[in-house]
Amino acid sequence: MTNFIMNMPITQELVEKKYHLYHSRINNALKACFEKELPETLYAPARYILEGNGKRIRPFLTLLASEAVSGFSETALNVALAVEILHNFTLIHDDIMDQAELRHNRPTVHKQWNINSAILTGDMMIAYAYELALKASTTRHAELIHILNHANITICEGQALDMELEEKQDATIADYLDMISKKTGRLISASLEAGGVAGNATDEQLQNLVMFGEKIGRAFQIQDDYLDIMAVNGKSGKMAGGDIINGKKTYLLLRSLELTTGADHDLLHSVIINKGISADKVSEVKTVYERYGILEETAALINSDTEEALSAIDNLPHAEGREYLKGFANILMKRDF
Questions:
Q1: Are the CB atoms for 187 and 176 separated by under 8 Å?
Q2: pTM of structure
Q3: pLDDT in tens, 14-44
Q4: Which of 56, 156, 228, 241 could join 282 via S-S bond, C-beta 3.0 to 4.6 A?
């Protein structure tokens, strides 16, 4: 199979086929988690959130990382499940803090049950994720637990920075990039790092996987900001400029505040001061972005981060896993949702 892949480029069709195959594999394995029935208010919410329409991007990256360094992913499945369960714990607690009522068009856990049950279930899921990591077919369990612990702590730091950023009227690009690297980026890089450990990667290979994850994670989040202002109403349920309307500090808004003066600057600063702006002003903000080249600059940053990510894993030893990683990264960066 490896020789076939080396002689034939990994097409988007092949990557999507593998993604759907592994998506089913991951979902089937997740169904076997949290089989205990009692206490019902502890385990039922865990099963409920895992039954949601999750994309399973992080565990897929874990499996591909293992394949890129070892040629196989079978021993990484428990690690991939641990990563996904840790991710879903963060979603439960994020929804509580955001007072969100829906996730994937279903009531959030704290709405379906209550806040206390949601907090307790999230806490339990952390420990469950560690237990899965300890069951991985490797002798490097201490490294796996350290990676998950570091990711968990870093995500909490990112969430705290995000809350502080909401109230900060003089926020900078550096503040924003630090926040997204911790809140979003670290779990992506940890997914790859843990997959590498499961595949018995060398230190250099782990560094390459982490760099890939950091760059893709940042590009992915900044692309979210970009797609928001470029969205067509109704696309994936998004309203064009929803971030601006809600007063969210994004890369585009903060970068434009650095460059603008006069009335343009006052308009953008009003988004910060008033914690949002009326929908009929979105086109004016977009015009400012266009006038100062913010959209082109943001697209260029997304592309450069993606290119650096792809280059970081050029020397990983197993061509099939390596090229699937690159192919999946390219699909993520070409999305329009």
A1: no
A2: 0.93
A3: 999 999 999 999 999 999 999 999 999 999 9
A4: 241
